[in-house]
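Limitations
The structure tokens in this dataset are predictions for the assembled complex, not deposited experimental models. Users should treat interface geometry with appropriate caution, especially where small molecules or nucleic acid strands are included. An illustrative entry is reproduced here so readers can see what is and is not provided.
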Amino acid sequence: MLRRRGRLRVLALSASIAKLTTLAQAVRDHVRDGTRVALGCALEPAIPFAIVYEIVRQRRRDLRLVGPISDIAFDMLIGAGCVAEVDAAWIGNVSAGLAHCYRRAMEEGIPRRITVRDHSNFSIGLALLAGALGSPYIPTRSLLGSDLARANGTFREAASPFDGSKVLLIPAIEPDVTVVAVQRSDEDGNAQLWGPWGVSQEAALAARAVIVLADEIVEPGVIRADPNRTIVPAFKVAAVVEQPGACHPSPLQDRYARDHEFFHEYHRATRTSDGFDVWLREWVLDVPDHDSYLAKLSARWDALRASEMAR
Amino acid sequence: MDVAPGEIMVAQAAREINDRERVFVGMRLPLIAFVVAKRTHAPNAVGLFELGIVRDDPAPELLYTMGDPPNVRGAVWCARTVDLMGLLARGEVDAGFIGGAEIDRYGNVNTTAIGAERAHPDVQLPGSGGGADIASLAKRLIVIMPHDKRRLREKVDFITSPGYLAGGETRRAAGLPRGGPAVLITTRAVFRFVDDEAVLWSVHPEQSVEDVTANVGWDGLRIRSAGIERTPMPSPDVLRIIREYDPHGFWTRRGE
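Predicted assembly:
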């Protein structure tokens, strides 16, 4: 019995060593051309910008993005030419306005045409929940009579078999990969996120694989002492990356504040296609990795970190 | 300091929140309207934020987004989007606010795209967010928009958020369980929906009825039968609350 337990522990250890990896390796292993990726699923906070930048650096193509509102993250990926299709409820810049790259792609085909399936926040949540439940669809009364119900192209209007009332059937979405950014995780991927979850848990449970970007890797005992914060169990997780500051410029509760001005600078800088290219070179392509990016932010990053850690 | 149109709109939006109501307030000017309502006539109102936050006390500092950390500290519930949307779908939410790029006389709102064809828009807008759900499922919808002839249109290019559709029985017939627009607050005026159609109710201080009506893009604008009112100026108390909360006018003076 003792020997058996010892052997299991060695196996568990080797599994976690295989999962703990670098951001660059996680993208190489799990985000390939054409992968269906869900990210930004907590809505405005905890958006994993670090992996957005790394996907751009590795020049992935034909990604199929899934997410609710994606405050500028989807805009960057679209502008960088990484995206073929999007299932989303909202693509813009929450505190600044329209998304310039998304506009250029839809209005002018720059840098390429993309396919968009319009959702609402509820319908994208229900699509991912259906995926998480292993159910083919979930019915709702939301969106009935709207043009969203028709234009999305995947929804079906039906009569409830129970009372005959009209319902809209939202088919399941099962991402190949869901990326979640969290405050802490153990090496095996038992990941804990607090603050609002948005549709993160549904997106993680519906996915074939989950990539966890943890602000901090903690001992398993920290997770086990407070399991209600765990968003997915480790067996859903394919890669764990310890990456402090992975969500900048979006906030991470109790870790760092939102960099409002960064969103507003992005909005001003990306009004033209050339302006976007310059912005992307400065903040992504000419920056080797996320630690260098935080170093480039310098005192500004320290202040964002300090304002949340001090609470 | 002059009173900005944004401040008049916030004050009016606050008046639309009744005490003890549960209200979706997760965007822009309504974030501030919730603060004003809570500190004046609606101390027991509850704010719902669709990313998964419920508050019975507004965040103590200006929010740029509903997901800013100050909106989590002091919340009574942190949950999932489907939890909040489920409450909405069950009919447990009294009112909700949305913005829009275009609206028609029946309160149908477009936030998706301008142009005849969805796949090839003239102007790509951000999309629904939770707007279409709030419009579909809240007991009462409050719309906030810039006032412009190109925005208050005979027919919107895309119905993102359903209002009364074509009026009459059409909203019910489509299968929507309740609700519909109650009021439209623009940068110039307030419209209330009577028998499914927007009726010009009041014009804001320093706005003329002529300018307001000339900037409505549909024919046969209906006018309040008992006479057009003047939207009240925010009281000094309300102005103080607004300016303490948004001292640089980030939301109230952004000039859009």
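Some entries come with short summary sentences. For this one: Chain B has seven helices and 15 strands.
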